[in-house]
Amino acid sequence: MDCLLGIDNGLTVTKAVVFRPDGTPISVARRRVAQSLPHPRWVERDMDGLWAATAEAIREAITTAGCRPSDIKAVAATAHGDGVYVLGRDSRPLGPGILSLDSRAGTLSDAWNATDIAARALDLTGQSPHASAPSAILAWMRDNQPERFAGIGHVLACKDWLRFCLTGTIGTDRTEASIAFTNVATQAFDREALALFGLDAVWNALPDMAPSAAIVGGVTAAASALTGLVEGTPVAAGLHDVTASALGIGGHEVGLLSIVAGTYSINEVVTDRPVTNSRWHCRSAIEPGQWNNMAVSPASTANYDWFLDQFCRAEQSEAAASGTGVHALLKPELDAAFGRPSDILFHPYLFGSPYGSTASAGFFGVHGWHDRGDMLKAVLEGIVFNHKAHVDDLRSVMPITEARISGGGARNPALSQMFADALDLPVHVTSADEAAAWGAALTAGAAIGLYESPQAGARQTTTILRSHMPDPERRAALAARYTLYREMAEAMQPHWRAIERLAEGSRRAIAT
């Protein structure tokens, strides 16, 4: 049987999925990839360790799929965007990969945003500076790790490192290339975008750019030995994971809102012209002459995972021992919380926010009669409200009539319904399982001619499983709570900065 392999590397897990051409996943294999946090705001990972874990996942996925390695006709990868993975001139990792959760460059990007650099960057590249952008991280490296910066031979994104490990070829695709240094109008790399940030020195280190559905090499003998893939199996360029998720659920189409409720709050709409604004990134879509407008912040279900890790450890242990999902164990508690009024509000800014690098998370309105379920409900509501803030920005200039959702929000019907009520939009959950990996596999399938294009493949294979329509009463109640949520976030901005100054003072005191 003919199969496709999609690789999806997130911020904590790398995954390999074998699919039938109709989008049915035959097997899924996962490996956890450890993060390193050697200093406050640093979030890194070992690049060779990432490849080793991914290779293990690929081998397991092929084995458990029950297919022959020769049945895998093409491979493509997607992975977290932003951050940076640099190689030396010998094509070996030049230090650890820096993830998009890293905010070491926050002070630098904040300084740029206080000058005309922000407006110039927006006009030229379609996006304002932010802490996890390669522009900010590379400039931080230039200023703080000059020897490392001077040794850079190649500037890659995470999925491009995996492509190199599979094929030995260095390059990127159109969607990934646009995260920092492309001209938003031409969709090509622009020297001026580097010069704007004082990064002229890495011009020759930028990778060649290919269409997402282009074959960029074949599996090498070394990669074959590690993964079990047949040597020479075609590998497509792949794409940025935000775009891959939208593609996988059939949402990478003009006018559709795609929501990814994962580690990041991702909200995206494709347009046939560039629409720039400081409140979102205007990046290249899969097809030339189309743009993907992405309003994002690292403030979505990572907050939920944090809550489970900190306050639900017994349930997590029980779930691991019994094979029961932790969400099922918590469902009665959460259902009870949804069935009663609550005055708790939560700002989901544990790892970042739309308000800059100094914002932090917080519960408001907690009283002694509240329980863990009330707090977990507030966390979920805060996640939805953060998405709503981004969606409201997008639809202020782009017509949006419906949404498709993937990530944790798609798996939890109560959360999907909350999205519909808060956004006042129909929210659809599609048949796509493992949406980002399937998006990558669609580019592989299009590259070998199984589909006319990745988007055509998505249209052929994706159906709507369930739809959530807004409830008028819940919509009105959430609208009032959302207004207060936003007012409190605005009021907290000077206090967040003061809290940050307190933390800096404590660190200095400890250091001395």
Automatic annotation (TrEMBL):
<dbReference type="GO" id="GO:0016773">
    <property type="term" value="F:phosphotransferase activity, alcohol group as acceptor"/>
</dbReference>
<comment type="similarity">
    <text>Belongs to the FGGY kinase family.</text>
</comment>
<keyword id="KW-0418">Kinase</keyword>
<feature type="domain" description="Carbohydrate kinase FGGY C-terminal">
    <location>
        <begin position="257"/>
        <end position="447"/>
    </location>
</feature>
<dbReference type="GO" id="GO:0005975">
    <property type="term" value="P:carbohydrate metabolic process"/>
</dbReference>
<dbReference type="InterPro" id="IPR018483">
    <property type="entry name" value="Carb_kinase_FGGY_CS"/>
</dbReference>
<dbReference type="Pfam" id="PF00370">
    <property type="entry name" value="FGGY_N"/>
</dbReference>
<dbReference type="InterPro" id="IPR050406">
    <property type="entry name" value="FGGY_Carb_Kinase"/>
</dbReference>
<dbReference type="GO" id="GO:0016301">
    <property type="term" value="F:kinase activity"/>
</dbReference>
<keyword id="KW-0808">Transferase</keyword>
<dbReference type="InterPro" id="IPR000577">
    <property type="entry name" value="Carb_kinase_FGGY"/>
</dbReference>
<dbReference type="Pfam" id="PF02782">
    <property type="entry name" value="FGGY_C"/>
</dbReference>
<dbReference type="InterPro" id="IPR018485">
    <property type="entry name" value="FGGY_C"/>
</dbReference>
<feature type="domain" description="Carbohydrate kinase FGGY N-terminal">
    <location>
        <begin position="4"/>
        <end position="248"/>
    </location>
</feature>
<dbReference type="InterPro" id="IPR018484">
    <property type="entry name" value="FGGY_N"/>
</dbReference>
<dbReference type="InterPro" id="IPR043129">
    <property type="entry name" value="ATPase_NBD"/>
</dbReference>
<protein>
    <submittedName>
        <fullName>Carbohydrate kinase</fullName>
    </submittedName>
</protein>
